[in-house]
Amino acid sequence: MAADRRTQILEAAIDAFCEQGLDGAGMDDIAQRAGVAKGTLYLYFENKDDLIRQAYWLCHQQDVEACQAGLDAIEGAIPKLQRRLRNVSAWGLANPKKIRMEMLYKSSPKYSKGRRYQTQTLQYQTIDKIMRDGLERGELRRLPAPLLGETFFGIGAAVFYYLCENPEKLDDEDFWHTCDEMIAGCLRQPP
Amino acid sequence: MAADRRTQILEAAIDAFCEQGLDGAGMDDIAQRAGVAKGTLYLYFENKDDLIRQAYWLCHQQDVEACQAGLDAIEGAIPKLQRRLRNVSAWGLANPKKIRMEMLYKSSPKYSKGRRYQTQTLQYQTIDKIMRDGLERGELRRLPAPLLGETFFGIGAAVFYYLCENPEKLDDEDFWHTCDEMIAGCLRQPP
Amino acid sequence: MAADRRTQILEAAIDAFCEQGLDGAGMDDIAQRAGVAKGTLYLYFENKDDLIRQAYWLCHQQDVEACQAGLDAIEGAIPKLQRRLRNVSAWGLANPKKIRMEMLYKSSPKYSKGRRYQTQTLQYQTIDKIMRDGLERGELRRLPAPLLGETFFGIGAAVFYYLCENPEKLDDEDFWHTCDEMIAGCLRQPP
Amino acid sequence: MAADRRTQILEAAIDAFCEQGLDGAGMDDIAQRAGVAKGTLYLYFENKDDLIRQAYWLCHQQDVEACQAGLDAIEGAIPKLQRRLRNVSAWGLANPKKIRMEMLYKSSPKYSKGRRYQTQTLQYQTIDKIMRDGLERGELRRLPAPLLGETFFGIGAAVFYYLCENPEKLDDEDFWHTCDEMIAGCLRQPP
DNA sequence: CATGAATGAGTGTTCATTCAT
DNA sequence: TATGAATGAACACTCATTCAT
């Protein structure tokens, strides 16, 4: 399952972090989960900090990539966001630990300021672009792009958490239709 | 300012946790901030875990109480939620550390499952009630109450984060009007 | 024997360093010798480096003080040096570990450049003074003061090592008479 | 420059030990300096200890050999010692790292008792021979041969250190004349 | 009640050594 | 012969907790 040592360690680390937290998970534990000796970790990562950052970055990149699927072909901010919500939900349900890892990282005072939606993330940039374009076309409510972005993230998180406990809804088109309406109702500029 | 020793310690602890994280903040640091000896902490709290839980609980209770202000007098789920958003925003801006403490606690795998909106919280119960009532009256989108609740939380968090960086909007009625529309557009069942 | 905790630890550390070297002696070992817990060491010393430096400094200061006894009352560079040699020998025989600790410190590339006789030591300054005065009065060979100083140190070390294995000579006035002659023959400017 | 792998490694090791100390220098560092893989070290040396001992021994042998040059042709203990001092000084200035390596080894509690002049060294034997012969002929002060030897070493070290910082003196015949007088004044039995 | 010196299990990290290639 | 990835015991250091005062 693990292509190489590095990935093998990163996956073990993500598991450990999810279960015990960034501080709670020890290097010993991670090494054991990865099936390597403790010293081996330091062949691939400078230190625990580096391991955490790289574990986060792996999750974040995969998340972003999954979210992006098919987005370019869609016209309009609202439809793009609707599609994006489906993308992230499907990916998140299949990779719950990676979602959790992103959250842990972002909520740690050591690594981040506690926002879900942060300027330096890749998501910020793509979402921000969508929002600015939508605002320009008069498609979205006249609110600052960052607020629109953060709001979209908030709704997304809600839907995702709901799906975690009701995964069967993932294929329920009625459910998605209502979600689409929520997003549209929330963000679309009324005529 | 601190009524008694216990509160004095709790407030120092909240400060420390916000700045350095639940694991990052040491009992030494907390004691120093509180102006008491390290041993004294253990007279008021069983251990660090207990201190964290009580610090969280203090913040959570005050949060809930502040959110509740004036809600009983309001008729209708949507208006209630709109008011609630103003309540939590105003309180949160005045008590950013307490909001942060709640987040830290909820995002720690040791104490919580990582949800913002959790069954055991007091908010869950009040919001859930509002949602159930609203659904019964056909006021809200036909979605499960927990999803509606989580969605409301998501929008609330977005608005709050935005206000943190643009606090002058707190008194901007136009801003709030748009927020009200976002909430309504998102949650109200269209005719 | 140990006045306070700090001294108690320093003495244990000196013992350990002498037996196992600065790097070879572990903090665990030092703590055990001192009869305290490992953590206690860090209440009195910032880190191992600090402990080493302070252990050295303690030895160095006592060494210097012992060497100085009665020197002020003596007139002339040669007699002063002769007396000094007796002083350091007597003190060194009674405190062999402290002498060794000084050597270990000075010979460690981490802490020093490897000279026995170093500018920053207290001995350097007092000996240098004696040499300069002696040169001024034409009492000593016309050589640079540092070379005279280093030479005196070299002879001193030789005598000390010899005494370590023949401690009974410490009270042998004939022995000291010959030592005095060695020093004089070596350093005094012939007429 | 390095005849074979073994020498190449030994020279790299000596460099590393001089700069970082016997404990401070890692096998990694030595391998890198020698331009070989870490594992290769263990083909030529049993372990780090063995490497240290052999590195020391190499330096020691070369030192002894250099000191011996032209000594057999000289009659009399004092002239021999004077010549020897010039030999070791010239060699030491040209091979400062080898001198340093010898010192590091001798001052390490793990390998030695901390004496400059030690029974098991090759120097001990040749110097001891000179001293015994000189004593027999009444040429030297009536002191035990080991003390005379150690004293000579002490003066030698002083001269060498001085030359390190004033290398131009190496060719200054006046300087050497005074050194010769120091040695003679120190060790020769007065009539 | 309050203290803070003392504790020691636990942490992240290093590094001499091994061994499959 | 030569390699360098892997190992794991050992290390310096931290910190929640205790307890004599």
Describe this structure in words.
- Four copies of one chain form a homotetramer.
- Chain A has 191 residues and is mainly alpha-helical.
- Helix content of chain A is 70%, strand content 0%.
- The longest helix of chain A is centred in the first third of the chain and has 21 residues.
- At the A-B interface, helix 1, helix 6, helix 8 and helix 9 of A face helix 1, helix 6, helix 8 and helix 9 of B.
- Chain A binds a DNA duplex (21 and 21 nucleotides) through helix 3.
Any chance you could write out the topology, listing elements then pairs?
The structure is a homotetramer of 191-residue chains.
Chain A: H1 5-20, H2 27-34, H3 38-44, H4 48-68, H5 77-94, H6 96-107, H7 122-136, H8 145-165, H9 173-187
Helix pairs in contact in A: 1-2, 1-4, 1-6, 2-3, 4-5, 4-6, 5-6, 5-7, 5-8, 5-9, 7-8
The structure holds a DNA duplex (21 and 21 nucleotides).
